[in-house]
Amino acid sequence: MSITVVGSIAYDAVETPFGVRERMLGGAATHFALAASLLDEVRLVGPVGDDFGDGDLAVLQTRGSNIDDVERIAGGKTFFWSGRYGWDLNTRETLDTQLNVFEHFAPKLSQASQDCDALFLANIQPGLQLQVREQCRAARFVALDSMNLWIDIARDELLEVIGRVDCLMLNDEELRQLTGKPNLISAAREILNGAPHAPSVVVAKQGEYGSALVTADDFFALPAYPLHEVVDPTGAGDSFAGGFVGFIASQIDGGVTTAVLRNAMAYGTAIASFNVERFGTEGLENVDVAAIRGRVSDLYDFAHFDPIAVELKA
Amino acid sequence: MSITVVGSIAYDAVETPFGVRERMLGGAATHFALAASLLDEVRLVGPVGDDFGDGDLAVLQTRGSNIDDVERIAGGKTFFWSGRYGWDLNTRETLDTQLNVFEHFAPKLSQASQDCDALFLANIQPGLQLQVREQCRAARFVALDSMNLWIDIARDELLEVIGRVDCLMLNDEELRQLTGKPNLISAAREILNGAPHAPSVVVAKQGEYGSALVTADDFFALPAYPLHEVVDPTGAGDSFAGGFVGFIASQIDGGVTTAVLRNAMAYGTAIASFNVERFGTEGLENVDVAAIRGRVSDLYDFAHFDPIAVELKA
Question: Model's pTM, two decimal places?
Answer without folding.
Answer: 0.96
